[in-house]
Amino acid sequence: MNQNAPNIHPREVRQALAWFAGVLWRGAPWAMAVGVCGQFLPAFLPAARILVIKELVDGVHAVYGQGAAGFAVVVPLLTWLAGLRLLEAMLAAVRGHAAAAVREKTSWQLQERVLEQAARVGLNEFEYREFFDRMQRALQAAYYRAYGIFRDAMSTLESAIVLCTLIALFATGHWSIPLVLFLGTAPVFYTQMRRGREIYALFHEQTPEQRRAEYLVGLVTDRDAAKEIRLYGLGDFLVRTWENLAQTLRRQRFRLTLQQQRYLFGGRLSGIGSALLALVILLYQAAYGALTLGGFFALAETIVRFQGTLFQMLRQMGDVFEQALYIRDLRLFVESPTEQGAGWEELSERPLDIAVEGVGFAYGDGPSVLNRVSLRLRPGEKLALVGANGAGKTTLVKLLLGLYPPSEGRVLYNGVDGRQLDPEILRRRCAAVFQDFVQYQRTARENIGYGQTEELDDQARVEQAALAGGSAPIVAALAAGYDATLGRYFEGGQDLSRGQWQKLALSRAYFRDAQLLVFDEPTAALDPRAELEVFRQFRALSEGKSAVFVSHRMASARVADRIIVLDEGRVLEEGTHDELMARGGEYARMFALQAQRYQ
Fold first, then answer.
1. Does residue 369 contact residue 358 with C-beta atoms inside 8 Å?
2. For burial by CB atoms within 10 Å, which of 136, 458, 564, 583 has the most?
């Protein structure tokens, strides 16, 4: 068993159950109330049926051989029995309707909370494997466990009430019978609790490997990866890798199941022994005339029903305990800290004046990517970041955009430390086109309007942004224009080239009314003519705004007012193009090397 599985105190389980009950009540209060009543009322029916059957057996015994007159005596009892069955069917229908409402509403509500949490946590959380493990467990709890725990809890309530009514019936037999049955079934409670904890511990242990298996499934079925998988003949290899991983997970689960069946079997034997002892007591009572024939049959049925219900309730309690462990994971995830908070300092409305002071940064627990970087980006200034791959250019712009807090040093916005500002407010003033821009499998309008969703329905602004970003001709060529679905993920979608997708990403950035524009290798996927067009538009479109242009092409950096040369996470040189060329340093060397390619 995994030694790293959490040691969970029973108090945490109770808290998780209370939290989940609150979620259910807020999500579907009427369905919750109907569901509880639907479990409560049917719980009295088994005892009622046993009483009717007792009277029926005694009645048949009394009128045996009396013909039609005797039959007329027992007909009302048959009517009562049929009525109880009809009532049970009606309550089951009501209960099923309420359960469906609870299942649909709460499942979607919990999934929504997980997705909202994933959208609100800091970007730095995505650098840690543990975060993805926690999110995986939370999603599975929301998808598969939410309704299960409600169903099992309601069934446990019903079983408990059934047991209470059956105990009352034992008053006509002997007081020791329920005691014997309880004591004999006690080991089942322990084994069910142990079983639930062990299954959860294995689930917790397998989460990383389960994510690896799901990654391989996604990789083999991914459209973008399909061409390379076929080119290199990776299909069979990846499937075999998945199969080996899946077999390992299956063997672990099967091994645990075999281990559990041993002690579960011991619990069942104890229950069988207690049932036999209870029947001996009942036979003794009948032998001495303490019971009628109907009473004997009724109590014998009660013993069987009592033990079956008790076994079922203990199993359900074990299931509730197990499900509560998953709900605990869900609760911990959705209530974990996010970037949203209170007490933020106010960011002045004047144009952004950004100062980077001694900033260092590392992704997660990895090595430092930036080391004591300091620079200034004044309002309206155009800044180019250049350097070799891995120099830290993209990381630096992520810090400027407020996507990550620095590991050391600080980034000031109009004199206020970025850590003290509401990230959402700060990012409303920023727009960017990243190297790995998103290709939204949505309409052309949405691909542009996602830059500022509150203005998504402003067609004039959407068209203006499309013209500015160079995507207007692309949209005009689509049969449905701005309403055309893009990509191949959904039926009727039209795919685009990477260069066309990037023009939509440029339009999306322009659509946002931002004070800071960031272009992270914006021309990497564009042809030379389109690249020249973007360069010419760059200064015009960022007029009155601050802009950061990331490139590994030295010639592209000439459009900027000032150039920062990064090397291994440090500022190596700074100045205008002419100043840096005059110094004859690294920038001049790289510029000369790249110029040779075009000679």
1. no
2. 564
